[in-house]
Amino acid sequence: MTSSLSEQIKQFYDASSGLWEQTWGEHMHHGYYGADGKTRKERRQAQIDLIEELLNWANVTEAQQILDVGCGIGGSSLFLAEKFGATATGITLSPVQANRAIDRARSTHLNAQFQVADALNMPFADNSFDLVWSLESGEHMPDKVKFLQECYRVLKPGGTFVMATWCHRPTDKVPLTVDDQKRLAEIYRVYCLPYVISLPEYEAIAQGVGLQQIRTADWSRAVAPFWDVVIDSTFTPSAIFGLLTSGWTTIQAALSLGTMQQGYKRGLIKFGLLCGTKA
Predict the structure, then answer these.
(1) pLDDT in tens, the chain (279 residues)
(2) How far is it, in rounded angstroms, from Cα 139 to Cα 244?
């Protein structure tokens, strides 16, 4: 990962993770609101439900060695470690996130470890994990091919790779318009993303790196209400105070929440799922 981009991502999450945890808790990802997005539920429960629905969708019923790529403050890692009685390893570019995840793990009986590492050059041996989990980290990767190659490399034969990531709409029939590109550029700038691609493009990459039994799904409708809830939660005294003390990058992200909300409504932003196995 280029040093400038990795430094931007590190600074973004170093600055914003504490506020996110204060407002939303340990899960730094979308929530699941039913297949049609119409099920009303408590916001943190929706995030837990997303994890459970992803596991069900990918037919993951057991795991022993889990890698959480882009682990945040350890929300998914600790949840999966407890659910499966497994050993979980989480990596992030943010030292603040890694240290917070380590602290959270110490307060549990779970077998979980966290470290600062680059997902494009992971410090793990080949065939190390039987579940490689990537929940909303692929969008940060400047080389999507290298990212999936690394996930495949560290996956054990017979293991499962599960990814959920921000995508843009497929472009095989209608290319991105100038307006589409401007809207995406704003999202990239605010959330420290190099670029996103479509789900069919991810599927082609997955095939190229050797994944088998590949499945994909578009869960945009199921998760889109998340942004409405996030926007509502921003306008509380504690959240406003937290924003003011978290720095300009976090404030910019908060001010741009509507951009993501509109991206889903226009069909430009997609929430893409992909899973596959290693032969």
Answers:
(1) 767 999 999 998 998 898 888 888 899 999 999 999 999 999 899 999 999 999 999 999 999 999 999 999 999 999 999 999 999 999 999 999 999 999 999 999 899 999 999 999 999 999 999 999 999 999 999 999 999 999 999 999 999 999 999 999 999 999 999 999 999 999 999 899 999 999 999 999 999 999 999 999 999 999 999 988 877 776 665 655 565 566 656 666 665 677 899 999 999 999 999 999 999
(2) 27
Kind plus residue range of the DSSP H or E element containing 92:
strand 87-92
Integer Cα distance of 181 and 74 in angstroms: 33
| Rounded-to-integer distance, Cα 266 and Cα 189, Å | 19
Rounded Cα distance between 156 and 168, Å, is 30
83 CB neighbour count, 10 Å cutoff: 15
Q: State the number of CA atoms in the 13 A half-sphere of 119 facing the CB.
A: 35
Q: Report the distance separating Cα 30 and Cα 264, nearest Å.
A: 13
Across 43-69, b (16+ Cβ under 10 Å) vs e yields beebbbbbbebbbeebebeebebbbbb
pTM greater than 0.70: yes
